[in-house]
Specification:
Layout (H helix, E strand, L loop, with lengths): L2 H4 L5 E6 L3 H8 L11 E5 L9 H6 L5 E4 L10 E4 L5 E4 L5 E4 L11 H12 L3 E5 L8 H9 L3 E5 L8 H9 L4 E3 L4 H7 L1
Length: 192
């Protein structure tokens, strides 16, 4: 599918990933243009004891503002929000983020599904979601919700994924709008 069809009305971009995704994020961030016209959320499976400085690490790779999401944060254009470890990150209708400590979903908290699903309801056709490398099925149900509400779904090409289970599972179960190589992701985001 053409990049132009994805760019139709992006008001929020969300990246979800697990094993093998951090390297991709670290390669994307330096290439993103300052002043993105939408907020960007990153949901990675991580353990709080290991990745407590993730937002600081990511902020060294980009000119964009990077912050770990806090309860009741308001989404701002051009900012990157990182889902905190051990919390589900929910997107509310009024551009507000909320944190939830309920049960793990797909053995994960944060769950990519939870963020994709809540953002799909809030942003509808203005949402673009990208699912990266990973070893679980987390993200697939969320992508189904994104499609149901008219958003756009992008999945990393499994051939370029360090762990291909997550993108393969999504491609098998969801009608994706675009399958993208890891090296093309920054260009696509900048084109929106």
């Amino acid at each position: 599918m053409e990049k132009n069809s994805i760019a139709s009305e992006c008001r929020l971009f969300i990246i979800g990933g697990s094993a093998g995704s951090l390297d991709i994020i670290l390669n994307i961030l330096p290439l993103l243009h300052a002043g993105l016209p939408f907020p960007l959320i990153i949901v990675l499976h991580r353990k709080s004891s290991i990745d407590s400085n993730l937002s600081e690490l990511l902020s060294t790779k980009t000119f964009l503002t990077v912050k770990e999401a806090e309860d009741k944060d308001s989404l701002s254009k051009g900012n990157i929000y990182i889902a905190p470890a051990d919390y589900h990150l929910l997107v509310e209708n009024d551009n507000i983020l909320s944190l939830d400590f309920s049960e793990k979903v797909n053995y994960s908290r944060p769950s990519i599904d939870v963020t994709f699903e809540t953002a799909a309801e809030a942003y509808k056709s203005g949402l673009v979601c990208l699912l990266l490398s990973g070893a679980s099925s987390d993200g697939t149900e969320g992508l189904k919700a994104v499609k149901k509400f008219g958003g756009k779904v992008i999945v990393q090409n499994p051939l370029t994924a360090k762990v291909d289970y997550m993108p393969r599972h999504a491609i098998a179960d969801v009608k994706v709008d675009h399958i993208i190589d890891a090296t093309e992701i920054a260009s696509l985001i900048n084109s929106l």
